[in-house]
């Protein structure tokens, strides 16, 4: 990986941390940013920074998209991301080499093989996976410790339909250490990054909602939350509660979620997150029981058909098992 250049398109927090870390590891890195002040800032550090990507006569390179993907209300605003991707597409058009475009921005699932692929193809006149490679490699760093997090990742995700792209990125990123997982579908990598952030946000909101209750009761939440962080299986066991399609059941979880909702009402505290937890579980239970009915129905028919033909059959497994048996 020493031989080819790495382009960073969008040289803000993630771009600078990614490119800076790769420079330190000995790679030849060029930073691209439309913001001239940013380019000057990076140039002052002694880094190769430019306002436009030029791939003319450039041997095959890796091009990381670290462009902004802010939200506007309840939707991603991908306009800057799309504009930056289009500029890469135009640059690909003028290049004979086969470059690989790696999406490192946080984007909704399906973006790499949707918007990115289409935008690159339209602007380059090339076909993805032939004229250029495509991969997803979401970034997990925290803004407060961006450079340190890039240099010491705890998880690296690489996804591409083309195993050669996966291997190329593995070679580039595995020296930084940490766990590295690969996928063939870029949408899986994109989903991982989104779920990662949403899970963190949900945990924070959970404890903030509990803080409102504690405030009302005149209790200090800190020692309470610190104890639950050590007692609740959902906190201490990373495997607990991570399966989909399996609602919670038993006695305690339904009792305490519903009971506490009513209790909060008596002390005038709104708990929209807890209400959503109950609603989500009810919905899942209904969906799953429908699936069980369908599976049982299908199994019965299959058994009848098999019995009619004189063969034995195993009953189809129903997917509706419960996620956890509560204490
Ligand atoms: N900041 C974080 O902690 C963090 C962590 C992980 C992932 N991410 C994701 O990484 C992506 C980048 O985030 P960031 O925090 O680095 O954003 P940022 O705003 O710090 O940097 C984005 C840079 O892209 C430049 N830019 C905008 N349009 C451009 C174009 N057309 N061509 C070239 N450059 C252009 C901007 O001038 C800016 O310098 C986002 O998808 C974000 O969600 C951010």
From TrEMBL:
BP term (GO), one: polysaccharide biosynthetic process
Q: Which residues cross the membrane?
A: none
Q: Which PANTHER family does the record cross-reference, listed alphabetically?
A: UDP-GLUCOSE 6-DEHYDROGENASE TUAD
Q: Which residues form the UDP-glucose/GDP-mannose dehydrogenase dimerisation domain?
A: 188-282
Q: Which Gene3D superfamilies match?
A: N-(1-d-carboxylethyl)-l-norvaline Dehydrogenase, domain 2 (1.10.1040.10), NAD(P)-binding Rossmann-like Domain (3.40.50.720)
Q: Where is the UDP-glucose/GDP-mannose dehydrogenase N-terminal domain?
A: 5-44, 56-172
Q: Which GO molecular function annotations are given, in alphabetical order?
A: NAD binding; oxidoreductase activity, acting on the CH-CH group of donors, NAD or NADP as acceptor; oxidoreductase activity, acting on the CH-OH group of donors, NAD or NADP as acceptor
Write down what this protein is called.
Answer: UDP-glucose 6-dehydrogenase
Q: Which organism is it from?
A: Pseudonocardia hierapolitana
Q: State the Pfam families in the record.
A: UDPG_MGDP_dh, UDPG_MGDP_dh_N
Which family is this protein grouped under?
A: Belongs to the UDP-glucose/GDP-mannose dehydrogenase family.
């Amino acid at each position: 990986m020493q031989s080819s250049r790495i382009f960073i398109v969008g040289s803000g927090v993630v771009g600078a941390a990614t490119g800076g870390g790769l420079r330190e590891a000995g790679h030849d890195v060029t930073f691209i940013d439309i913001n001239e002040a940013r380019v000057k800032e990076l140039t002052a550090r002694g880094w190769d920074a430019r306002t436009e990507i030029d791939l003319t006569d450039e041997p095959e390179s890796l091009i990381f998209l670290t462009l902004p993907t802010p939200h506007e209300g309840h939707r991603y605003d991908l306009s800057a991301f799309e504009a930056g991707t289009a500029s890469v597409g135009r640059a690909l058009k003028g290049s004979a080499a086969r470059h690989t475009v790696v999406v490192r921005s946080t984007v909704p699932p399906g973006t790499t093989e949707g918007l990115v692929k289409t935008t690159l193809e339209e602007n380059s006149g090339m076909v993805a996976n032939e004229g250029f490679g495509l991969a997803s490699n979401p970034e997990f760093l925290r803004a407060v410790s961006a450079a340190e997090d890039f240099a010491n990742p705890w998880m690296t995700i690489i996804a591409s339909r083309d195993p050669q792209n996966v291997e190329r990125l593995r070679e580039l990123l595995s020296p930084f250490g940490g766990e590295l997982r690969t996928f063939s579908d870029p949408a899986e990598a994109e989903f991982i990054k989104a779920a990662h952030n949403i899970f963190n946000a949900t945990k924070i909101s959970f404890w903030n909602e509990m803080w409102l209750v504690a405030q009302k009761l005149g209790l200090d939440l800190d020692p309470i939350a610190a104890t639950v962080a050590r007692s609740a299986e959902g906190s201490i066991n990373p495997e607990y509660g991570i399966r989909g399609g399996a609602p919670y059941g038993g006695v305690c979880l339904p009792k305490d979620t519903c009971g506490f909702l009513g209790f909060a009402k008596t002390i005038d505290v709104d708990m929209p997150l807890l209400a959503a937890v109950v609603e989500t579980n009810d919905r899942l239970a209904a969906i799953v029981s429908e699936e069980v009915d369908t599976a049982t129905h299908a199994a019965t028919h299959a058994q009848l058909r098999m019995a009619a033909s004189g063969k034995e059959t195993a009953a189809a497994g129903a997917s509706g098992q419960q996620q956890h048996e509560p204490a």
